[in-house]
Amino acid sequence: MRLLHRINLDVPAGVEHQFRSLIGHARIQQAFEHDVVYGSALHPALAPHILPFVDSARSFKRYGALRLPRRPAVLRQWALTRQIKRMNADVILSWSGFAREAVAVAARRSGTPLIYREGGGCWFEHSQPAADRFIGEIRGAICNTRASMRMLQLKWGYDGPARVCLGGIRPDVWAAAHDTDFARDAASATDNSRRVRIGVAARLASEKGGCLAIHTLEKLRAAGIDAEMHIAGDGPDRAALEALAESLGVAARIRFLGMVSDMPTFYRTIDVLLHPALQEPLGNVTIEAQAFGVPVVATAVDGMAETIATGETGLLVTADRPYAHYQRFGGARSVMQSTQVYDPQADALRPATFAHPKDLAEAIATVIHDATGYARMARAAAIRARKLFAFDRHVQSFIDAITDFA
């Protein structure tokens, strides 16, 4: 079976890293043949992990050396349909690009079954007619969490076949985690004479809650906890976050690391991972950190209730502050921020909110306050993450879903 993957690869973020890990897996290579159609560009950090495992990789926004304009839309729709027919694809697999008009049109005109892989795309705002047309072409939906599946169903009215293929820990990170003793040095992490290191790993964009993390550090220090913060990631909000750290007097205790290629070393050197995102379908960094025996403090929203066992592998903090107050903490409206998020307790949608830094700080203090409790949580995090988010299990469930939907 030949799969044509329609995915944007211009930024090496969560979905893109999941894709590049999946495409190179031996079972995926044995099960399917692969072509890739991307948007504007193939990022150089992703290319070496993708190109050796696909028969072709092309942009549908180009015809030879000519870049096709966005309007009229029929030009790119024609180009994508032409590429699908030339590649003799048996299935189009659209990665997190919900309501893609060009994909829906190309699937219909080429007569190729369309499978949608949901990992965040349906959180964004789209026109309902475009969503309806896209849904009308979907043969099945593969969702990386139950939250993703419910978002697709509740927000957009999808009632077709859907399957949860819970996300997996990338093989390179998985191997490093298995080489790490998850009986972490609890005495070191909870020693009052030692500075606690809090890790944040995210794109520096407003919906990830970076400003809340910096305020949380300020609250911890005000409470007398000697803490520092290492932030892995880059993005449009970096300058604003650096300025916020200066204004709160914590700049000397924060290291902005930029893009980090060696994430295993990052996880090994932190005591707690803080993930105060306002929305999060899965949160790859939360499952990776736990595999290294790092407890996680995160917002209780979307897929976080599936990746973190609160009270056992970390703590989930209620997001009970109205989004209208987010600017008071340095947050800015982001085009990536959904107006609605999934409430796992109510199994319903609700308006986007955020967790107060004071509550996040109290959760971190609870996690680190005694050595025995920390050691128990670190061990439970490693055991659960390595069992529940094994990449081989993710791959097999993915293969099964493609085979069934096709």
Verbal overview:
- This protein is an alpha/beta fold and 406 residues long.
- The protein has two domains: 2-168 and 392-405, Glycogen Phosphorylase B (Rossmann fold); 172-389, Glycogen Phosphorylase B (Rossmann fold, 3-Layer(aba) Sandwich), CATH 3.40.50.
- Helix content is 40%, strand content 19%.
- It contains 17 helices and 19 strands.
- The strands form five sheets. It has a seven-stranded parallel sheet with strand order 3-2-1-6-7-8-9, sandwiched between helices. A six-stranded parallel sheet has the order 12-11-10-13-14-15, with helices on both faces. The chain has a two-stranded antiparallel ribbon with strand order 4-5.
- Helix 3 links the parallel strand 2 and strand 3 (56-59).
- Helix 4 crosses helix 5 (101-110) and helix 13 packs across helix 16 (371-388).
- The protein starts with a strand and ends with a helix.
- The model has no long low-confidence stretch (mean pLDDT 94).
Explain the layout of strands and helices:
Elements: E1 2-6, H1 14-23, H2 26-31, E2 33-38, H3 47-50, E3 56-59, E4 62-63, E5 66-67, H4 74-87, E6 91-95, H5 101-110, E7 114-118, H6 128-137, E8 138-143, H7 146-156, E9 162-164, H8 171-178, H9 186-189, E10 196-201, H10 210-222, E11 227-232, H11 238-247, E12 254-258, H12 263-268, E13 272-275, H13 284-291, E14 296-299, H14 304-307, E15 314-317, E16 321-322, E17 340-343, E18 348-351, E19 353-354, H15 357-368, H16 371-388, H17 391-405
Parallel strand pairs: 1-2, 1-6, 2-3, 6-7, 7-8, 8-9, 10-11, 10-13, 11-12, 13-14, 14-15
Antiparallel strand pairs: 4-5, 16-19, 17-18
